[in-house]
Design goal:
By secondary structure, the protein is of the alpha+beta class. The protein is 39% helix and 21% strand. It has a four-stranded antiparallel beta sheet, covered by helices on one side. Strand 3 and strand 4 form a beta hairpin. It is globular.
């Protein structure tokens, strides 16, 4: 069985100007690159929130690098 990639690009016709990056591993989230909003797909308790705060910046940086890499492959 194949596993999902760590990041996926997504779009939606209801949001024609938005570009979404979906992080498929814990902590799962969707990043809207248009406005930098993050929608977390996990429930967090206080202990998780501390760990999340320390790793969120790194994960969002990885998501942005993934997008840049993907776009460069289209050019």
């Amino acid at each position: 069985m194949n596993s999902l990639p760590k990041f996926l690009l997504g779009d939606n016709t209801d949001y024609p100007d938005a570009i979404f990056i979906i992080h498929t591993e814990f902590p799962r989230f969707i990043l809207n690159l248009t406005n930098d909003e993050v929608e977390w797909l996990e429930e967090f308790d206080k202990e998780d929130e501390e760990e999340l705060a320390s790793s969120a910046e790194s994960l969002i940086g990885e998501a942005t690098a993934f997008y840049d890499r993907e776009i460069s492959r289209y050019e």
